[in-house]
Automatic annotation (TrEMBL):
Molecular function per GO: C-C chemokine binding; C-C chemokine receptor activity; interleukin-8 binding; interleukin-8 receptor activity
Record GO biological process: calcium-mediated signaling; immune response; neutrophil chemotaxis; positive regulation of cytosolic calcium ion concentration; receptor internalization
Function: Receptor to interleukin-8, which is a powerful neutrophils chemotactic factor. Binding of IL-8 to the receptor causes activation of neutrophils. This response is mediated via a G-protein that activates a phosphatidylinositol-calcium second messenger system.
Superkingdom of the source species: Eukaryota
Lineage, opening ranks: Eukaryota, Metazoa, Chordata, Craniata, Vertebrata
Official protein name in the record: C-X-C chemokine receptor type 1
Topological relation to the membrane, as annotated: Multi-pass membrane protein
Predominant location category: membrane
Key words, A-Z: Cell membrane, Chemotaxis, Disulfide bond, G-protein coupled receptor, Glycoprotein, Membrane, Receptor, Transducer, Transmembrane, Transmembrane helix
Transmembrane segments: 41-65, 77-98, 121-140, 152-174, 208-230, 242-264
Membrane keyword on record: yes
Residue ranges occupied by any G-protein coupled receptors family 1 profile domain in the UniProt entry: 56-305
Similarity remark: Belongs to the G-protein coupled receptor 1 family.
Length: 350
């Protein structure tokens, strides 16, 4: 039976391990460069994302909470999305330090930050799927049932957090801090001799229920929503949807590449496509690069709200005016009036 030391001797040749030991004399592991990207550049990117996310998502939470009376269902979902991004952003200094010095924080913190990363991803796409369904019901079927029952939306959000936690639990349970031979400490999962088999199961199931199905729901809902808007020539209402479409598009641009690379990696590990040293190296580099792109997503939504969401800007200016930081005359000049719609995105009469 393998022990952890033997496992990590094997991992020196293949960091994204399959869990299968070297077999026979024909085994010839690929010599891979584990330093995929310049770690100093990655640390700087993580630091910038951390600062932008901390500031931006805090402002989003403040604006939504401040507009309690006119808060829409969409705002509740976006509030939870901002909380998820903010919680994950708080772990970025840890990921940055790990890039620089290896995983020096022990197993407990390894489990916690891995859990927050996965919960952030799954809750993000599930919340966006719920927004798409809410807009679909409101526009295509002219249904306001969900909008009127805000307490139901709170339970939906709790369900999303709970389901995201369940999908992320394998990372919390199986991740450990290791010190490979002649290498820096790492935070990675270990499932014993059956690592290859279980790793595929733990990858395919969450990807199916936490990414593919919500993505299909969004494509269906927004497809019919857009068709209804254009068919009815609802120009003003279409403009009101721009922020939501932008949020969904940015999420997909940031996380879809990483998930597509994971699919390619899974196909290669299950031998549905041939594994070569060159292909393994390319996929490992792609995983590194696309993961950074996914981390970048945590700071982008507030930027979307600031540049596209007129209601968000108005809400922020009204908070500044309430605190005496700007004058009411400034609000009048910039045509900032009282709220007639939700605080960030979509008018409630859609």
């Amino acid at each position: 039976m393998w022990n952890i030391s033997d496992l990590w001797t094997f991992l020196e040749y293949d960091f994204n391990f399959t869990g299968m030991p070297p077999l026979g004399e024909e085994y010839s592991p690929c010599s891979l460069d584990t330093e995929m990207l310049n770690k100093h550049v990655v640390v700087v990117i993580y630091a910038l994302v951390f600062l932008l996310s901390l500031l931006g998502n805090s402002l989003v939470i403040l604006v939504i909470l401040y507009s309690r009376v006119n808060r829409s269902v969409t705002d509740v979902y976006l509030l939870n999305l901002a909380v998820a991004d903010l919680l994950f952003a708080l772990t970025l200094p840890i990921w940055a330090a790990a890039k620089e010095k290896g995983w020096i924080f022990g197993t407990a913190l390894c489990k916690m930050v891995s859990l927050l990363k996965e919960v952030n991803f799954y809750s993000g796409i599930l919340l966006l799927a719920c927004i798409s369904m809410d807009r679909y019901l409101a526009i295509v079927h002219a249904t306001r049932t969900l909008t009127k029952k805000r307490h139901l939306v709170k339970f939906i959000c709790l369900g999303i957090w709970g389901f995201s936690l369940i999908l992320s639990l394998p990372f919390f349970i199986f991740r450990q801090a290791f010190i490979p031979t002649n290498s820096s400490p790492v935070c990675y999962e270990f499932l014993g001799n059956d690592t290859a088999k279980w790793r595929m199961v733990l990858r395919i199931l969450p990807q199916t229920f936490g990414f593919v199905i919500p993505l299909l729901v969004m494509l269906f809902c927004y497809g019919f929503t857009l068709r209804t808007l254009f068919k009815a020539h609802m120009g003003q209402k279409h403009r009101a949807m721009r922020v939501i479409f932008a949020v969904v598009l940015v999420f997909l641009l940031c996380w879809l590449p990483y998930n597509l690379v994971l699919v390619a990696d899974t196909l290669m590990r299950t031998h549905l496509i041939e594994e070569t040293c060159e292909r393994r190296s390319d996929i490992d580099r792609a995983l590194d690069a696309t993961e950074i792109l996914g981390f970048l997503h945590t700071c982008l939504n507030p930027i979307i709200y600031a540049f596209i969401g007129q209601n968000f800007r108005n809400g922020f200016l009204k908070i500044l005016a309430t605190r005496g930081l700007i004058s009411k005359e400034f609000l009048t000049r910039h045509r900032v009036t009282s709220y007639t719609s939700s605080s960030i995105t979509v008018p409630s009469n859609l």
